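Annotated sample (chain length 537).
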Amino acid sequence: MIQKVRARMIPLLGLSAVLACSSVVQAAPPPAPALHDDNLSGHFGDWYTGAVPPQASNDKPVILFVQGLHSNYNTWLKTDGYYEAAYKAGYRTAFVQLKDADGSGGDMWTNGPKLAEVIKKVAQYYGVSQINIIAHSKGGIDTQAALLHYGAAPYVNVVHQLSTPNKGSELADMAYSDWTSWLAEILGKKDDAVYSLQTSYMANFRTQTDSKPGVSATKTYMSGGEGDDGWFTAYWFAHAILPGEDDGAVSVASALGLPYGIKSFTKNISHSAMTTASQTWSLVQPKLALGKKAVAAASLQEENLSAVSQAALTVSENSSFIMKGGSLAKGSSKEVFPLESGLGSISLDVLTAKETTQVTLTSPSGKKITLNPAKSAEKDDAVLFSDAVHHTLTLENPEKGNWTLELSGEGDAYFMLARPEGRVKGQIKNARKQYKQGENAQIAVSFDGAGKLEDTKAKKAKLTRSGGKGKVKSLQQADEVNLQTAKNEVLLNFKTPTELGVYNISFDINGVNERQEPFTRSVNYNFAVTDEAGKIE
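Output written by the structure step:
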C-alpha cells in the first residue's frame, strides 16, 4: 500500500558555503506535496498540493496532475519528474489519487466524478477560476469524463494528454480474448479500468462524449510515444499487438484519436518515459495557458497545423499472427500449428505467469527446442502483460510442416504469440465496433499472398463475453460463427447477442498457399452490443 504523506513544511536551506566560480549550483528538490486527506479509509479521492515555488506567479496557471492506469500520484514525483520541473519553473501544482491508487483500477464512470470534485477543490484552494491539467495515459480519459459528464469543464482551461488511449487499446481486447483470458486472470489484469479500455467500449465512450455541447471549450492537446525497446523486452508483446506506431501501451492512432484534440507532439520514447521531465516537459510547457483569453489568443494557424485528420489515423488490425493459449489446470498442454515454406523467420513469445513452467517447441523433423524464461527486469503496471514471464525464441528460415508447442506447469496459464515473416499478411478491414442487439454482422479479413482462399476454413471460432463492469469472471463460450470466402477476403458472418456488453470473437483461419501448403493465422475481433439508446450497460 502507498503510505500517505501528511502535510508538512520543509524550510528552504540557505547556502552554507561559497562555491568556486567554475562550479554549478544544483537546485534542491522541491518539498514534498501536502496531503488533503479526504478519504480516511483509503487513497481514492485524496489530493495533494505541491509546495509553492518562491518564484511562483499569478501569471502562470495552476497545474493538476492526473495519473494513468494502475498508477498513483507518485507518477509525477519520481526523479526527473514533472513535479520538480513544474516547481523549478514557478508553477503551483496539485495531484489527485484516483481509484487505481487503492489497488484495482477504476473506469471513467468511477474516477470521473471524483476527479471533478477534486478539480473544483484545487481551483478553490488556489483561488483561481480555472486550472490546467496534465494527464498521463488513462488519466486523460478520466479527465474527459470529469469535464464532459460530471460538470468540471468550466474549471479547466487546458488539458495536455500524455499518451492517452482515446480509442482504447488492443491490449485490453486481448485481456478478454479466448486465448489470453486465463493468463490475464492469473496476472490480475481484469478490472473495471482494463474492461473500459477495450476498443469497442472506448468507441461507445467516444459516441457518448464527443457529441456533447462544449467539447471544444477546454483546449485539449494530444501527444504519443513511438518508443521501441527492442524484441522480447517488457514492451515487445505490446508492440506486436498494437497497430502502427506505439509506445508499448498505446498506439499513436489511439493517442491522437480525439476528434477535437490538437496534436502536440510524438516522440520516440516509451509509455512510462512520457512522464519524464527531461523527455517531454519542454514540449508540454509552451502549451500551458492562463484563462480563456490566452486560449483565444492562440493563432488560427496553430489550430490548422495541429489538428489531426482522423481518417489518416485509421489503422487496420493486424491478423498476421499465430495465437494459442489456455489453462494449465491439468498440468500440461500441447498445441500443433503448421508453418508454410519460404518464411524468412518466425519469432515466438510464450507468456506464462510462473517461471517454473516448462516450454518446449518441436520441429516437424523432431528437433526439440527449450524456450527459457526471460522475465524482464522492467515492470510497468500501465502496460498490460508486462509482468508476465516471457519464453522467447527467434528462428531463421524455419522448417515447413507441423510444429508442436508443449507446456508443463502447475496452476498456470499460457499465451503464445508467433510472428511469421512471410508472404501471407492478414488484416481486419474497417470493422464496426458497435452493434445493436441481435443485429446481423459481418467483418472481413483480407489476406495477401494466401493462395486459395476458397479452401480456407475457420477452426474453433468462439464468441466470448467480457466480464461485466465491476465483475471479474470467466468468459462465456457461445456458438460458432460462419465463414465464407470472397476474392482475397475471408468474411465472418454472425448475429450479435441480445445481451448487452463487450465481446470478442477469437478464431484461427486455416488455408493453403499457392504451393498447396497449409498455413494458419489468428484473428481476435472486439465489438460491443448496445441498446437502442446506444448504452452498453
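Annotation: Residues 5-26, 294-305, 468-480 have pLDDT under 50 and may be disordered.
Annotation: Residues 229 and 235 are 7 Å apart (CA to CA).
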